[in-house]
Please model this.
Amino acid sequence: MRRPLTSDDLDATFFPGQTPDQSRAMARQLEVWAEEPRPAGAEVNAAELLVSAGEQLLRVGDAHAAVQVLRRAVATGEPVEPDARCYLHHALLEAGDVDAARDLAERVRQERPADVDVYLLIGEDYELHGDLRAAHRWLTLGARRALDDAQEADDRTEDAKVREAAHLLRSRRRVRQQLDMPPDDWDLLVPPVDLDALPD
Model:
């Protein structure tokens, strides 16, 4: 039996200069490991292995294969930060299956996730794929949740919650500027974005 995998081992599956063939081979290996019984002491679960496999496939442009692998990750029901469905949503958009991505996002929204990174990832995915209205909706939902969290935070968690809120507010302001929306009260909490500096 293989030794237990650590989070560092999983991080090491991505390395500079990785070729497409190496990425595909690593994806296959991660899928094999995900099917094996989880060794005692392992830090990563099957869902995390499958998410990493899906990311390897996305790296080489094989979005349709990534969708299949990431559906399996979601189906395990095992925890992945912030949510395995965020990665599946990204892959669905990459594969051009916008309707499936929207259905998935709506199911996630109805659950009102507590982790604000869910809103950030889905919102920025929509921005990346040119759906600025959907991006604005998700980033606004996330900003509202993050600002509430920051207000309720104790001394131990306040700094982290404020950073999360600032990240969402910056992304939201960037999207609002692209939509030619006038600044609102939340926009004034963060500096404007130089849209000319954004990558095409």
Observations:
- The chain has a mean pLDDT of 94.
- DSSP finds nine helices and no strands in the chain.
